[in-house]
């Protein structure tokens, strides 16, 4: 019912956790190449979290999820289960979603990777999905509503003839992985009553589809795919509402906002 306002101490811990989540995604980048399996990538991420960072992989055994990352290829929307038999190939687009726990607090972030030469339409989907996330993030400030965030995302997706997944959403985050509020990425009128306040922390993680918005869950009870089997792309950051805007807690070194009309 209520959205937690984090204390200064909690915010500092969320900064640390967020930075560590971003560092896993930076660390893994050179390994994300044709020929590697998603199982191997998960093992590399797991080892780094546990043995280098001293973080806990939050997804491992979360509601029974069997791995330390979610790795979602092409038509897989989210919650792809890493698998030693699933090999990345030239032309694939891949989301890796990492959530770490450090000192009791969660950092959650994901990004797309393009494997080798991808088709121009696949590259464009990844780019527009990235812009959708940042357009949503740019709305974040005290007094704005989650409707503003969702409308910015949905408008850009629709302008590009893409659709926005409705069944999965961003979320408050802190000592718990998934807290209130639910951060829907489509312009549901219900979001108009969720007003942002300094000290709130939540994720924005739009899933953008090339075809229709519909999704279904495979028989493993985790893997979410597009119903029409067309491509889907997702990016995610964990955001803090500050006095006059936002702080992206999971921002990676060298990463800057990507908005439409840039290069
Ligand atoms: N990291 C995902 C998110 O962004 C959640 C994954 S839950 C899992 O909310 F169980 F699938 F790992
Ligand atoms: Co999340
Ligand atoms: Co995530």
Notes on the protein architecture:
- With 263 residues, the protein is α+β, with helices and mostly antiparallel strands.
- The chain has one domain (8-248): Alpha-Beta Complex (Creatine Amidinohydrolase).
- Helices cover 26% and strands 24% of the residues.
- The strands form five sheets. Strands 1, 2, 4 and 5 form a four-stranded antiparallel β-sheet that branches. Strands 3-12-11 form a three-stranded antiparallel β-sheet, with no helix packed on it.
- α1 crosses α2 (38-53) and α3 (120-137) runs antiparallel to α4.
- The chain starts with 7 loop residues before the first helix and ends in a 15-residue tail after the last strand.
- Bound molecules: 2-amino-4-trifluoromethylsulfanyl-butyric acid and cobalt (II) ion (CO) (2 copies).
In short:
With 263 residues, this protein is an alpha+beta fold. It is built from four helices and 15 strands. The strands form five sheets. Strands 1, 2, 4 and 5 form a four-stranded antiparallel β-sheet that branches. The protein has a three-stranded antiparallel β-sheet with strand order 3-12-11, with no helix packed on it.
- Helicity, in percent? 25-40%
Query: Regarding CATH, which class?
Result: Alpha Beta
> Tell me about the biggest sheet?
4 strands, antiparallel
> How far apart lie the N and C ends?
42 Å
Taken in chain order, the helices and strands follow as HHEEEEEHHEEEEEEEEEE
CATH homologous superfamily grouping:
Creatinase/methionine aminopeptidase superfamily
Rg over alpha carbons: 17 Å
How many beta-strand elements? 15
Number of self-contained structural domains:
1
Mean pLDDT: 98
β-sheet strand percentage: 15-25%
What ligands does this structure carry? Answer: 2-amino-4-trifluoromethylsulfanyl-butyric acid, cobalt (II) ion
Number of helices: 4
Tell me, briefly, the overall form. Answer: globular
Tell me what the CATH architecture is.
Alpha-Beta Complex
* Oligomerization state: single chain
